Amino acid sequence: MDCQALQGTAAAAAYIEAHLGEALDLGRVAEAVCYSKYHLHRMFTDTAGLTPRAYIQRRRLTEAARALAGSRRPIAEIALAAGYGSQQAFSAVFKAMYKQTPRAYRQGGTFYPLQLPLALNPSPAGAGAVALAGPADLPGWMALLPQVVEGFPCLEPSAHRRQIEGQIARRQALVLRDGPTIAAAAAFSYRTGEIGFLAVHPQYRRRGAEEALLAVLREELLPGRPIAITTFRAGDRADTGQRAAYRRLGFREAELLTEFGYPTQRLVLRPGERRP
Q: For 130-269, CATH number?
């Protein structure tokens, strides 16, 4: 991966974090890190997997959700801190992304993020081969989790850790490593053919990580069987591209579901299904 792109994206993300409560736009961030707006937009989007504008919005909404769940600050005050001119405008966007109003989210009392601060591998060597995960991979798996939470609404880290410990023990977890860094991971079931978790660090997306994990599942571990995964429903504004990625891999739409109160859809990849 281009070292300049990594350094520039990391610098932009750090600047955004330091000034999250201030007026921010692409021009200000680009000027701060000494890139043109066009170059920063292209570089950041390719490396982080979403545009600078989307990253800023999701980070602000995440911190607003944290404030809603963990404080009694007025919603209007939280809306202003998140960069919205009115509580009404904030509530509309919050509901579109979190599937409930700020008031209902506060009453639930449980925080979960849309986007946590971006952390990049500064010295990538290139991902190796997909392998079954072992107990020694658990810390790296959990280090990957904060970088992929946008794909897993309502995910609770401690519960996920316990689940993955079991998946590793049953040899139902895969990792793709770049040196000591876990670039991608998947947990699956031999019994049902379901992929319960599939995640790729943003800087390794668009570089064949999903395809590599899926090839091992299709050709070695679950040959000749339908493989299913659940993801965002069509049109969900919280989706940063997971649904489209699965569709490109050949998954087809199946039943609509609701998981942990969140609307999702099951997608199925059938034996012999070709990518579109």
A: 3.40.630.30
**pLDDT in the model for residue 3:** 82
Conformational region of residue 132, where left means phi above 0, alpha means psi within -120 to 50, and beta covers everything else:
beta
Which residues make Cβ contacts (< 8 Å) with residue 151, sequence separation at least 6?
199, 231, 240, 242
Tokens 């490593």 appear where? 177
pLDDT band at 205 (very low <50, low <70, confident <90, very high): confident
User: Which residues, 6+ apart, have CB-to-CB distance to 95 below 8 Å?
Assistant: 101, 102
Distance CA 202, CA 46 (A): 9
- CA dihedral (246, 249, 252, 255) positive or negative: negative
Q: Count Cβ atoms below 10 Å from residue 114 Cβ, excluding itself.
A: 21
DSSP alpha helix (H) spans, the chain: 3-18, 26-33, 37-48, 52-70, 75-81, 87-98, 102-108, 138-144, 157-169, 209-216, 242-248
Helix (H) or strand (E) holding 274: none
CATH superfamily, region 3-108:
Homeodomain-like (1.10.10.60)
pTM of the complete model: 0.91
Backbone dihedral angles phi then psi of residue 238, each to the nearest 5 degrees: -80, -15
The residue length of the chain stands at: 276
> Which H or E run includes 177?
strand 173-178
